[in-house]
Amino acid sequence: MQHGKYRFIAGFLVLPLAIYAIFVISPFVQAIYYSFTDWTGLSPDMKMVGFGNYARLFQDDIFWAAVGNSVTLLLLLPVVTLSLGLFFAFMLNVGGRRRKKAVIGGVRGSGAYKILYFFPQVLSIPIVALLFQFAYNPESGALNAFFQAIGLDTVQPDWLGDPQLALWCVMAAMVWANVGFYVVLFSAGMSSIPKDFYEAALLDGANRLNTFFRITLPLLWDTVQTGWIYMGILALDVSAFAFVQIMSVGPGGPDYSTEVLPLYVYQKTFRDGQAGYATSIGVSLLIVTLIFSAIVMRLGRRERLEF
Amino acid sequence: MGSTSEFNRRDLVKRAAALGIVAVPAMSVLSACAGAGSGGGEKVEKGKKSAKNPLAVNESAGLDVVIFDGGFGDKYAKDAQAEYIKAFPKTEGKIKLSSTQKIQSTLQPRFNGGNPPDLVDNSGAEQMDFGTLVAKDQLTDLTPLLDAPSIDDPDKKVRDTLRPGVVEMGQFGGKETWILYYAYTVYGVWYSKGNLRKLDAEYPETWGDMLALCAKAKKKGIAGWTYPGKYPYYLPFSLYPFIAKIGGTEVLRKIDNLEPNAWKDPAVKAAFDAYYELYKKGYVLKGSPGLDHLQSQKAWAEGKALFIPNGSWVENESAKQIEKNPDFGLAVGAPSSLSASDKMPYGTIWASGGEPFIVPRKASNAEGGMELLRIMLGNKSSQNFIKQVSSLTSFNGGTGGITLPPGLASAQAALQKAGSNIVNPRLQDWYVALQKERIGVGALGEMMAGRLTPDEAINKIQKYADDTRDDSSVKKYKR
């Protein structure tokens, strides 16, 4: 029965694997090769420098600032976004007051909230970043105007201009842009949880907090895990790059407080003409990503509840 | 589920997910690395050399031009292109002129692949690093253009029609001229005569007057200064000539040469202290550290602040806001005198070439690229540029017979007043990362936001400069 199984499967996988090898694996190998050269990115002329680029990384304060900020984003962004997403989804689907017919339901007007939450998702990243940049404008932005309106004239932060605040400001915009997607994702997940679970729990006298931690979250675990991975990628990847590039001082500042790895790769390649060094930063970004995925896989390994 | 298969579906999914995680971020990084392609554009044949065609341009070959679409827009280049077609009618329809703000991300793959355009305005935030381009032999020497007769006067070489210093700026130590700066920018303290008049003031020629004027403005709720805190490397536009004025050009030369302790010169400290005092006394527009160049220029043009460090492109860039106030009277001021013992007289100003044009080494029609530049450096195109974007060109002239807009007229007057006291710090074209990011964002921006004292800023900058000097991956220059 098992005879020839691998050959059979391999037969199906040849084409996709070939495509994967050409378009995914080979650029990897190429990039790792470039990271050992002094390629400028402006001419095809380069020579090998061995581990020179990597040795330089260890001395590079800006690189370490970028690693620090990227890791901060990686740790905090998924937690904040997913927690908010879960909370909102729970309120929209399960958290409401008991009404006559339905045993469980969302808060009043949950349909409208759903649309509202999802709305940022239809805006492109640069638009969201620009919107927030306007809001953060210390001179005429909405935030400082709001503080003035409620009589807090003395509280006029520089927002993006302040190294203590800048990264948080960028992060807030990223959360805002992404949370809606998770509300919808988790809502879908929650709607597939059988209602009788909640009925039984409510009969036993469970409160909302209990139903959330004992029923909703465990049954939603797979979805949460997927969301976690997805959010982690966003934190390390294009999204972080675009937000920082558009919004931050410098960009990457003030004083490197918002420098992130993908932005640093970009600056080294496209501003300083040091593509070889940039690829070695890219490889270290790859390593950070690998560590992240290994940790997530390990933490996420738990038996799925089946029903 | 009850599957008996050895293949655990869950594992498979997980592995696939793991690969996916790895793949996605890395892909975006790698997509930048198009790799070192070969081949590329073929050179077009040379045309016949004649009095009308001194560079021997192929009269029917196409031309590929990329213009930086920044403060000056791209219309001036399109007009010059029309002149080119007039001179070589067979090229009609074969000229491709595109404009972008993303010079490097658009052009890097083309340089790498060996098929770059014939003429590039390598400017803006995404300027390609000249040091690397020169070191990697990617540029065409423009000497033939400089030695060709000018378009207006066949007895005069193009070289002799340019403003002083322009040719030297395009050289990197050797005899070859790699870059031709087309615009001629006057940097300094930009202000509105109208707004000063409202305060019964003239442009303050001494720092004491400057502080007094700022104090007066503050009482009326107007800030003295603003600057683009998002891009703090605008501060040097008035700060560097200020340093030169206090301590002499020698200080700037040492800084450009990355000499040890160049930044520890007392003139630097004095200039930094003076600017820091502006912050300390609350003369800087609140929130400036968070503004970008357009936002700060808008606040300044609306009269919320009196002074802004900037270059002559500001007249074009802020035209919309300035027009709202017919009384505006845009003008540029040289750095005020700090004390009577300043080494250089009042009027010392920073003026130098802007909008660097290059002809790539592997351009297929390098002669055409140079010819277009020759046309642009003629009287007609120069005048057109001056009228359109109110900035001078490197062509020494072109201002006759036209009424200059106020900002430009003031820049012209400032140049005359400066005479030979024109300084030209090279940090910003030699060491872009050092100037813009490290000194600008890392130190000057921090100091003007009040988060570094002048001493701390100087120490930080000195360390940055030392790091750059010791960094073997950065090519060094001397002047």
UniProtKB/TrEMBL annotation, chain A:
Q: Which domain of life is it from?
A: Bacteria
Bilayer-spanning residue ranges = 12-36, 73-94, 115-136, 165-185, 228-247, 275-297
**Primary localization class, coarse:** membrane
Which cell locations does it reside in? Cell membrane
Q: Which Pfam families match?
A: BPD_transp_1
Q: Per its UniProt record, what InterPro entries does this chain match?
A: ABC_transporter_permease, MetI-like, MetI-like_sf
User: Which PROSITE patterns does the protein's record reference?
Assistant: ABC_TM1
Residue span(s) of domain ABC transmembrane type-1: 67-296
Q: What family does the Swiss-Prot or TrEMBL record give for this protein?
A: Belongs to the binding-protein-dependent transport system permease family.
* Protein name (record): Sugar ABC transporter permease
Origin species: Streptomyces halobius
Q: What is the lineage of its organism?
A: Bacteria, Bacillati, Actinomycetota, Actinomycetes, Kitasatosporales
TrEMBL record, chain B:
Which domain of life, per UniProt?
Answer: Bacteria
Where can this protein be found?
Cell envelope
**Record keyword Transport present:** yes
Which UniProt keyword terms apply here? Signal, Transport
A single Pfam family it belongs to is SBP_bac_8
Output the InterPro entries linked to this UniProt entry. Answer: Bact_solute-bd_prot1, Chitin_NgcE, SBP, TAT_signal
Q: Does the keyword Signal apply?
A: yes
Q: Where does it mainly reside?
A: other
What family does the entry list?
Belongs to the bacterial solute-binding protein 1 family.
Q: What is this protein called?
A: N-acetylglucosamine/diacetylchitobiose ABC transporter substrate-binding protein
The organism encoding this protein is Streptomyces halobius
